[in-house]
């Protein structure tokens, strides 16, 4: 598993992104940060592949000014 902290939804509040979530460990979990220092319940996103997502990196890989995940 890998953990990254970044603002992934553009609200200027840091979020926590965790790879290797779910029964097949092929999901990414995101805990969206709130301005009171707490987080929303984890939301899972499928990577679309069957291999385990053991590491994660975040950047704007496609030059659309948005954050992208790569596992």
TrEMBL record:
It comes from Rotaria magnacalcarata. It holds the Pfam family FG-GAP_3. This is VCBS repeat-containing protein. Signal peptide: none annotated. The keyword Signal applies. The keyword Transcription regulation does not apply. InterPro entries: FG-GAP (IPR013517), Integrin_alpha_N (IPR028994). Keywords: Signal.
């Amino acid at each position: 598993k890998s953990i990254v902290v970044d603002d992934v939804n553009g609200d200027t509040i840091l979020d926590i992104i965790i790879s290797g979530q779910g029964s097949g460990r092929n999901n990414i979990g995101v805990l969206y940060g709130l301005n009171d220092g707490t987080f929303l319940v984890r939301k899972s996103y499928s990577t679309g592949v069957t291999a385990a997502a053991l590491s994660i990196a975040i950047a704007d890989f496609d030059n659309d000014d948005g954050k992208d995940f790569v596992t």
